[in-house]
Fold this protein.
Amino acid sequence: MDLLKKYNFVSSDMDFYPFKNNMCSAIGDKSLLIDSEGNICKCWDDIGVNENFLGNVQTHTSASALAIDQKYREWSPFLYEDCNKCDIIPICMGGCPFQALKVGNPQCCKWKYILDDYLQNIILNYMKNRQISKYFKD
């Protein structure tokens, strides 16, 4: 972000506080994906992974469909102690459920590591653009 600003590139999300604006559809009760061959799955990352298909629109559900659907619906970041203690849980909500299920625990998002610097840059840029920085100490 600093390098982009140094060379006068502007991104629409550079001056906004990070927030969670959506939830993963895979953990929703009424969310399914259908690929080009009619295979049904819960997550975009499951497309092309035959063992993760819930079934096919022509051949109905697979034997493991209920278990696959249930593992997504029951997933929650609040099942993990690290997430329960984390200050940024409202921003990341445990990250990607697919990745968490794959490796066995939630994968922390970038905001956990860069939020303080990011917010400081926003404040400094705001003060610079408003030419009010002279009223504040470094």
Q: What stands out?
A: The chain has one domain: 17-135.
